Amino acid sequence: MEQTLSIPTAAFLIGHLLAPLPLRADDSPDKYPGSPLYSKPVEVAPGVWSAIGATQPPTYENSGHNNNLSFVIGDNGVLVVNAGGAYILAEALHREIRQITDKPVIAVVDENGQGHAMLGNGYWQDQGARIIAHEDAAAVWAEDAWDILERMKKINKEKARGTEVVMVNETFADRLSLDLGGVTAELMAFGPAHSEGDISVWLPERNVIIAGDMAFHERLLPLFEETDTAGWLESFEAFAELAADAIIIPGHGGPTDMATVDRYTRGYLIYLRERVRALLDAGGSLKEAYEIDQSPYAELDTFEFLAKRNAGRVYVEMEFE
Description:
The protein has helices at residues 8-17, 87-100, 115-118, 121-126, 135-156, 229-242, 258-281, 286-289, 303-318, and strands spanning 42-45, 48-51, 69-73, 78-81, 105-110, 130-134, 170-172, 175-179, 184-188, 200-203, 208-212, 247-250. A hairpin with a 4-residue loop joins β3 and β4 (78-81). By secondary structure, the chain is of the alpha/beta class. The chain is 36% helix and 17% strand. It has a single domain, classed as Metallo-beta-lactamase, Chain A, CATH 3.60.15. The strands form 2 sheets. It has a 7-stranded mixed sheet with strand order 1-2-3-4-5-6-7. A 5-stranded mixed sheet has the order 8-9-10-11-12, with no helix packed on it. It is built from 9 helices and 12 strands. α1 packs antiparallel against α9 (303-318), α6 (229-242) runs antiparallel to α7 and α7 packs across α9.
């Protein structure tokens, strides 16, 4: 196994970024009553399962299950992709796994350094699993984990029981291959995406890629302060070449195909960058950037929350390109 171990503009932007988070009127109810999980895991391909999270922000009602929690069953054991946003989510996912197989969970891969990927690390560590992430995601988690935990506690209240900060114990830089027994899991960093250390998991024998936040389609993709949209477009090219004909399990939303994630990921980034470039060339202001027409993507969940913020982020990014 090969492995590499391990301001006026700003003030205006910050005001918009601190605005309260609205929910869509069509926000879906919990799809799996009686479980902390938002939905029951579904089999996407033989031995490849995913519990699809809400495409909305974390709430008490969804227990913070607003990303996809996937697992892959091999002859030697189970690989879990994303530890979950709380101890109870990891525990609930494990209950589902045990109903399908008696094989042990031998490794957990955190697809980035965000809370809903890593806050369940402690549960899986207690099960004896390896906890793996990209070296950049591990570094982000080491710096931000305690603040992320406190924010989760405010949302989940008593549902936060048992959740503690647990660090990643194995990292990689570019690619790491895991032999699950009859199934190979290739952990791959394609390059910049929406957050530091974003990775995907390629399953060549199943023609499935667990894309993580490289690809979006049911909810509007989020842009953070550190997001490099030009770099993301380059990374997406490499991702698209590998996953052209694969089943794609994105970080949020149900399984889909390349045409769909291409439209809502690469297509959206190009759309927004082109309009910001035209605005900058015309001498337009950041305030005007917030009014860029993004209506072709208005049907996506979290659009009301993210569209204006995304435009502001891209304006600030491209202002000095």
